[in-house]
Each structure stands twice: as C-alpha cells, then as structure tokens.
Amino acid sequence: MKNKLVELREIHSIKQEELADVLEVSRQTISSLEKGRYNPSILLAFKIAKYFNLKIEDIFIYEEE
Q1: Neighbouring C-beta atoms of residue 5, cutoff 10 Å
Q2: CA gap 2, 37 in Å, rounded
Q3: Residue 64: its pLDDT value, please?
Q4: Is 0.85 topped by the overall pTM?
C-alpha cells in the first residue's frame, strides 16, 4: 500500500521521531510505513489521519494487485 506520509511530514516540517512520539509508535514503524513495508492497523491509520486532519484515503492509496 502506498501512502503520502513523507510528503505530509515534509509539508509540516515534522521528523519521523516527532510523528512517532505523537502517534505512540516507534520511529521504525514510521519508516516502515513510509517505505511501504508495513500496513497500519485501522487504529493507527485513523490516528495518522486525525493528526494531519485528513481522511484515511487521502493518505493511504489502496491498489488492487
């Protein structure tokens, strides 16, 4: 699953560590999400969307295989 986390962090000038702290996850989780190696739980996806004041589908791009 692709996502726009890197773009959003850059727009808001937020480091991976800062976002991880706010979301109560590790920096490695943010890194894995950004690289598409990890799909977030629905709860984490909602937390990320709420933090950026966006809808989940504005951040995460679902692509059928």
Answers
A1: 22
A2: 9
A3: 81
A4: yes
